[in-house]
Amino acid sequence: MPSSLRALPAWTVRLLVPRHLDGGVTAYHAAFREHVAMPLRPGTLEELRWYFRARQAAPADAEQRFDEASRAFSAPRFQRLYRAWMERGDPVLEATLSPVLRDAIRTAFRSD
Predict the structure, then answer these.
(1) Residue 95, in any domain of the structure
(2) Is 17 among the domain residues?
(3) Single pTM value for the model
(4) Do the domain assignments include residue 14?
(5) For 43-76, how does the pLDDT look when each residue is reduced to its tens digit (9 = 90+)?
(6) Domain span including residue 27
């Protein structure tokens, strides 16, 4: 989703919440910002790139590093990134460094 949003000149994300879950809207906003809008730091990106490649190769000599990376990148955001990376390669990861989505979302939330 994030790379496709970057390609559009304008977009809107709407969250529809049933009345009985109204109390969770703030948590949904925070999760959206964390998982979609936060650019990765270059060091995190390099570790993520290593992990994705290691996931494909299953290296026996880096078992501890792989286990640590597996725990660090277990969030749904990274699982989706892995699937996108498998389909489209490294450009998917490079896009995670961009602050474009974060800035657009900050602007949108300020105007609400």
Answers:
(1) yes
(2) no
(3) 0.58
(4) no
(5) 999 999 999 999 888 666 678 888 899 999 998 8
(6) 2-7+23-111
